[in-house]
Amino acid sequence: MHRSHIWGEIIMKFMSRSSAVFSLLGILTLLLGGLIAGCGSADGLSVAPAQTGTVAILLTDGPTDEFSAVNVTVNEISLFSDAGGAVVIFSGSRRINLLALQEVEDLFTITEGVPVGVYGKIRLKISEPEFVRTDGQTITSNQIHLVAEGKVDLVLEHPIRVFPDETLIIRLDLDAEKSILIHVSDANGLIFQFRPVIFVEVLHDLHARLASVRGEVVSIDPETHTFLLKRSPPIFHILNVEDKPVLDHQEEDDVISEDRDDADDLDLDDEDHFRLHLIRVEVTDETHIFKASGQPGDFDSLAVGQHVHVRGLLTWEDGLFLKAKLIEIGEFIRLHGEITTGINAEKRFGFTPDPGQGVTGEILVQIHNETFIFEAGTHRRLDPEDLVAGKRVLIEGVLDVGVEPDLLLAAVIVVKPPEAKVTHLQGVISDLNPETRTFTLAEGPLCAFSDEPPCMVPLRIIAVHAMPDALILRVQSEKNNGEGDNHLGIELIPFDALKNGDEVHVFGQFDPSGSPFHAKVVLVEGSSGL
């Protein structure tokens, strides 16, 4: 959809309710700007604009039991064509707690003006990792070795294509559990290494995921049951593609970047910048709304100035908007833990939070008819009857400490299946059998993380079966021999590409019978960069 279509409706809706923000002069300026841009060159000849599309980035993360927070700063996201041209679709400084993204698809950015073409690589630049352990200990950036200085190249198994006037959604799973490596050093104690492991998924179905946006309500339209949500940093980014050729014909070092200053410097009093922060949200009969008290609400519970968390479906029908499925007004906490008792007649059950979350001892959890209950990973909707003692869950809600015991009013309950508990093994592989997708793992510290030979002393020998849907990634820090920046390369490879002697990290579960180990993810080591 053209940019004018996306913003036309947003501006008009906002004008109707907030005339103080957008002046008539501002609207005329936008219209005149569009007319001038469409008139062509000064000599009267028409110049066809470069064909462009839109790219939306969703960020998410998987669970980890060892840390309560994993903070990183995202500085850049770029797309690279097979011809070598680069498009920077985000450049700035956004701080993110990866663990807050569990079972959440954060709408990181929607970038308009991306040149059409085929892209075979995504590059991320991150910085300033910081870990908080469940016992409260903080591991600061200067205690963490950031591999390849946080530059990560994701080589795509199948190149992606940006089509004219269409939107491509890319989901990036920054897996904290697989990214943090802890090594034991006799001299310095524990060594923490952050080597980002990122999984890429291209979503062709806009309704495949619920996008998540947090922000402030700035305008409400009761007639259409919609409101405008403002987020800082901005949601939208617009590339400067004037006078740029189609990407397939770019020079290798030709980089298209955002037509703006750093996101932190945007002036919200400037209407052209202000609109980059806005997204329209539609509320329907299927939208579940929870008030700041944790009790269910309705559309009338919304008010200008409130901070809300919206999960919904991105829709490009009659302009871009978010069709809300769940809205939380105010601050809601998230607690991991275990169900200790079944549900009673008041729709309450016992729950013990994990350590390190600021809430101790057993509490009660209140379920409402509007509470979202679903399974982790699959997002399959569940019933209250599925919440039985012994289940591991993530609960999002409001804690009422005015009752005894404390009562957690639940808006969302995520049930973790038993297979969600992942075991991490490392070692050297042998006895590869491509037909059965099996190998033998000599488990022990990898040479890549040891300065003193012999580095590989097997602790035990384990039979491993790579499951049919297992992801096998080659992770290698590339130094480029001084030519260009160092970066971490991540590439999806087939089982047949494994070799005897490869050093690997294996993530999965042991078979209930004890053998073999069922691998869901295999990371093949390249250079460690240590």
Structure explained in plain terms:
It is a single chain. The protein has 530 residues and is mostly beta strands. The protein has 3 domains: 314 residues, no CATH class; 87 residues, Nucleic acid-binding proteins (OB fold (Dihydrolipoamide Acetyltransferase, E2P), Beta Barrel); 104 residues, Copper binding periplasmic protein CusF (OB fold (Dihydrolipoamide Acetyltransferase, E2P), Beta Barrel), CATH 2.40.50.320. 7% of the residues lie in helices and 48% in strands. The protein contains 4 helices and 33 strands. The strands form 4 sheets. Strands 13-14-17-21-20 form a 5-stranded mixed barrel. Strand 20 and strand 21 form a beta hairpin. The longest helix has 15 residues.
